[in-house]
Amino acid sequence: xxxxLPFFYMSRRVFxxxxxxxxESMLKKxxxxxxxxxxxxxxxxxxxxxxxxLEVKARDDLGMIRxxxxxxxxxxx
Length: 77
Prior knowledge:
The chain is built from two helices and no strands. The protein is an all-alpha fold.
């Protein structure tokens, strides 16, 4: 009993340590993913602010044109 009690205590502590190390590595990976996603969203915000993405969306989704442009419709056969 004297030998078993410290062994179980130490094994429990080692298990908690290993679990904590694993959790830390998983959280670091998650942080990297979130930072990359954040950077992508910042770039997209900057594109909207410059009007680049807004113009593309207006042309593609709404069929809008710039002032002075001519539209040519080509019939499908």
